[in-house]
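Quick illustration, no need to memorize.
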Amino acid sequence: LRTNRYFYHRASIVNRKLKTGHRITARELWSIAKRQRLICPLTGRKLTIESISIDHIIPISNGGTNHPSNIRFVDYHANLALAHFGDAALIELAKDIVKTCK
């Protein structure tokens, strides 16, 4: 029950920011989460209600949409880093950090 409320709430938040285009449903968000098996595609971490965050693969500000093919769930902390970097830049930065720490 808590999960159902979460996806309904997240859909309403995502849609509130949308002026035009696809309005995502809670069912579509749940479908995305199931397809990912609640695993973050960037970190490999298991996503929980406390750690899950919605990410637009192509940001709305760059012409992305709320279409399910443009939405994925990522770890909250990874999503914070993505706010400043794209996928490729974030991965390169992480590689550099790992090299330095060895």
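The chain has four helices and two strands.
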